[in-house]
Amino acid sequence: MRVLGLPGAMAKRPSGPPFPDSPGAWIACFRHRARVNGREPSPEQFGRLIGRSGATVRRWEANRQVPDDRDISRIAEVCHLSNHHVAFLIMACSRMRAMPAPERSSFVRYVQEVLGSSQYPAVVIDGLFYVRAWNSYLDALGTGFTRALSRDLHPMALIFRAARAHPEASPASDEEALREGLRIFWMGTAVHSHRPEYARMLAELAQEPRFAEMWMDIALGPMDNDRPIGFNKALVSDGPSFDVYSRSMTFPPTYFINEYHPADAVARERVETLRRQGPPRALFRHELHWVQSHCRCGCE
pTM of the predicted model, to two decimals? Predict the structure, then answer.
């Protein structure tokens, strides 16, 4: 028998915020923003702070239950959440039902028309920001860019790899653009955070250097209440600058079309060179949508 505190005693499991890959994990991270006597509160202590039982907090964090609007308001107050954090938590706890993929031939026909008629590099992404289609002008953003999209890589992985490949071209403004792109991704995928695909996606992205650190910083760090989340600068580029214009299209489900408009002479020349070669071709990934299974909270 081992006795705690004596030589050879079994070490106590260290506590700390989990990697936030579900609504419950996000709540657990937010709990660690609160303080009781200068320390992170236990679920029981946290429950007392917000007027709930420790058992209820544990059910939230285990994704067996979600807080209501009043609970979220109290969590926000006790954890010093920003308006953005609150908006994210409301969407994360909405448990939106998955929508089936659209009928393939109609999707392909419509997207071919949209991407084939665009005068600019363009890409279609789904609710988890996976690329589903793009046009051949997208190579203007960087050499071999369309070839990279053909691989099974999330765009955020491409962005982080591009930042590592050109560290000398990453001043403070580009670092902030990287963080802003991550915040857009964080907020944009909130309604799907209860789904297993969300957790699998984040597990893959966490293998990219710096991703996990920056993702945790969204949960535990400060966030500017007054500044909206958004950007208009292409985050993947090996030199030229592009402005990003995004719009949604709903079949359902909802997809997003991003167009990249040249913002400097180098970018304009790249796009013009591709235009002289002919109209853009639409290219597709095999899957139309990311939904593959039921959510983890029993809502379906």
Answer: 0.86
